[in-house]
Amino acid sequence: MRDTLLAPLICATLAATLLAMFIMKVVSSYRRSFIAEIGTSLKQNFLLTNPRSLFLMSSALTVIAGSLALALAGPVAFVTATIASLAGPWLLAKRLAARRRMQFVYQLPDALLALASALRAGCNLMRGLELMASRQPAPLSQEFSIVLAEQRVGRPLAESLDDLRRRVGAPELDLMNTAMNVSRRVGGNLADTLESLARTLQEKAHVEGKIDALTSMGRAQGWVVGLLPIFIGLVLYAQQPERMSLLFTQWYGWVVLTIVAAMMAVAAWMIRKIIHIDV
Asked: pTM of the entire structure?
């Protein structure tokens, strides 16, 4: 009798130990990836925040959100809340990087015009970049300050500009880097080239602004389409909680929620493809 009870107990203990080791390994891998990638993103955005503290806050938020969702709405809500909490920091970092890149691109034409004016006034390229870094607003001044700091320690300008392109991720910098590299190697009127490039970028920004204005209605419709089912679900849950709770407690309710979520995701993707126009 003892042997028959001891064998399942040993198997259960071994399975629990293996599961705990697997969970610890996954958490450790996620922690390393979080600290490395989120920390790099914070540094590139000049945000002086400790990524380890953010990891602890994100972990606590995930546990709290998952526990509340499990207690109030069931396993499906638990999985949804956990995934949303885990993906939140990555989406926020991506959003901050995209916002910073947009600000940089909008500041670049004025900075190039100022650099062209400095070159016509008799300054060399490095002096013009110093004036750009000191007089232009952030984030452009911050990025070019890094380029100048690398130049002072002996790094070639071409390599610093290539790193600038990779950090910011703006394709507009390819034209500027090409113009500067060609001018340094074969000569030419760099001031006129930069001025023409600045005018082109201004026209591009103007066209993109028109496109954003024309597609704003489509974006608003996308938000309405995405939030309306959630709003209707909350209203129905407030009116008939017993029937609506079946969506979170029965297997067929989970299937319905999965199908609805998949259809909403496809609709959001299609709307995004329609309103996203590359200039």
From this structure: 0.73
